[in-house]
Amino acid sequence: MPDYAIGAVSAATPSFYVDALKGTAAEGGAITTSGASFDSVLSGVQGAGGVQLGRSAQGIGDVSSVGGIVDSLQGLQTKSADLAVRAVTGDLTDVHDYTIAAAEASTAMELTAAVRNKAVEAFNEILRMQA
Amino acid sequence: MTIFGAIGIAGSGLDVHRKWLDAVSDNIANVNTVKSTSEDAFQARYVVAQEVTTGEGGVQVAGAVFGSKEGRLVYSPDDPLADEEGYVRMPDFDMESQMTQLIMAQRGYQANAAVIDRAKAEYEAALQIGRS
């Protein structure tokens, strides 16, 4: 049953924070504002979310992690816009297809925003560390 | 299939129930369709639902099964389609069973729509964790 979203989000915070710390330590200990440490934060998120969300997220192609959902956000938005046009012009036989696509796009958007917020928060936390 | 598993599975349920509703409405619309005895009667359409065994699950329409061709012979000599003995063919299902199926299709559709709502609320509740 796809109910692992709670585990994924709660596990994402501590482990990618640790990974971000490891990332900055590997770069010589200096806290940089380059994109490299940010990438390590995001890849930490992908690793953390991968196990928990794997079961419920094996839908579109290779979507198998939180990062995968973020990547496919663009696809979901396009699909939702497409179906909206078809619903309005009368080509849509299943009305629920459009409402489901709109609900998924909005949930994926919120997930993306949450991932970004957590990543930025962890990043700022690292920045605030005294030398 | 979709990313959020429960939503995708319930979506397939909505598809099947919508097709069931279409079949029932077709049957009800044709409940009084008279044919002459030389043709087949109007055959009721029954949708065959089958589980999806690959991937995450769900349901799909495996096909349609049609009712009897003979129908009921009804004595109606004034009908222009009646044969020499005055019989015509009427469809062989009754309105009561179709109305029951209509209610089942509607409630099934509503149940699947409720699953989607609840699944969306569940995913949103997960996103609230740690937001403060």
Number of DSSP-assigned strands of chain B: 4
Whole-angstrom Rg of chain B: 22 Å
Mean pLDDT of chain A: 65
Kindly name the structural category of chain A.
Answer: mainly alpha
| Mean of all residue-level pLDDT scores of chain B | 90
Structural class from helices and strands of chain B? Answer: alpha+beta
**Helix proportion of residues of chain B, in percent?**
40-55%
Order of helices and strands of chain A: HHHHH
Give the overall form of chain B: elongated
Q: Give the percentage of residues in beta strands of chain B.
A: 15-25%
Overall helicity of chain A = over 70%
Task: Describe this structure as you would to a colleague.
The complex is a heterodimer of chains A (131) and B (132). Chain A is mainly alpha-helical and 131 residues long. Chain A contains five helices and no strands. Chain A starts with a helix and ends with a helix. Chain B has 132 residues and is α+β, with helices and mostly antiparallel strands. Chain B is 45% helix and 17% strand. Chain B has a two-stranded antiparallel ribbon with strand order 1-2. Chain B has a two-stranded antiparallel sheet with strand order 3-4. The model of chain B has no long low-confidence stretch (mean pLDDT 90). The chains are: A mainly alpha (131), B alpha+beta (132). The A-B interface holds A 1-3, 5-6, 8-10, 13, 55-60, 63, 69, 72, 76, 94, 96-97, 100, 103-104, 107-108, 110-111, 114, 117-118 and B 1-8, 11, 14-15, 18, 55-56, 113, 116, 119-120, 122-127, 129-131.
